[in-house]
Amino acid sequence: AVKVIDFGVARLVRGSNGLPANDTATGELVGTLQAMSPEQVSATAAEIGTPTDVYALGLILYELLANRRAYDCHSESLEAVIKRIQEFNPPALNTLVPGISRDLSMIVATCLRKDSKERYQSAGDLAADLNRYLVGSPIRARDPSLIDSLRYWCKRNRLLMAGMFLLAGVLMASVVTITLFALRAEKSRVAAIKERNRVSGMLDFFLDAFRASSPELQGPDTQLRDVLEPAIEDAEVAFASDPRSLAEVQLTLGQTLSQLECPRCRKCG
């Protein structure tokens, strides 16, 4: 007996001239929507070939095993059904039907891949994998890789992805800005601490010098210049690693000694 299976619409793989032949114009949607592959509803005739028939066989297997169609086209608009066929996978058979093995579910899912290159490339390849399943041999069908899953998810959620990239860009810019401000603030804080310590060191040096000039240590006849002159040499040791502080201390000591040497200041010295 001859059995006719409706795959949506018949198409010649090769015409009489050896070139691909189509009975419908490019971009025209013709056929039973429930039996059409993603490339058929996209009207990309160049992608239609033997894997398209494999997709149709997968739909038939799905309906036979699940007792329901992979896609319900009655309660949605044409645009919604086309989007579903192009972007969404039907529920896995082993999650719908008790007793369906993961391997058999994977074989049918491979037939229904959105990318025709990821399906079985011929009915013979599908039959061979079904035979492996029946005899208990390892099948060739495999789960989509993580990269493939991410690619399909991004394709289905273009607007969401654009928003996520925009948000990520804003967050990265904010993090960079906050980090720069924090680094500058930390740099300023460290610089302020260093300057405070430097000034404190000079004050301590002068206080030590003045304490050394007290009458209790130097006697009642000690003059200020007798203390400041040795302090110039002491500063070279105390500030050997800080040329800036050394220069400021020696300048201050020198100016003080110069004032003590002037006639008007000698009375005070």
UniProtKB/TrEMBL annotation:
One of its GO terms (cellular component) is cytoplasm. Residues 1-134 form the Protein kinase domain. One of its GO terms (molecular function) is protein serine/threonine kinase activity. The chain crosses the membrane at residues 159-183. Keywords: Membrane, Transmembrane, Transmembrane helix. The keyword Transmembrane helix applies. PROSITE patterns: PROTEIN_KINASE_DOM. The keyword Membrane applies. InterPro entries: Kinase-like_dom_sf (IPR011009), Prot_kinase_dom (IPR000719), Ser_Thr_kinase (IPR053235). This is Protein kinase domain-containing protein.
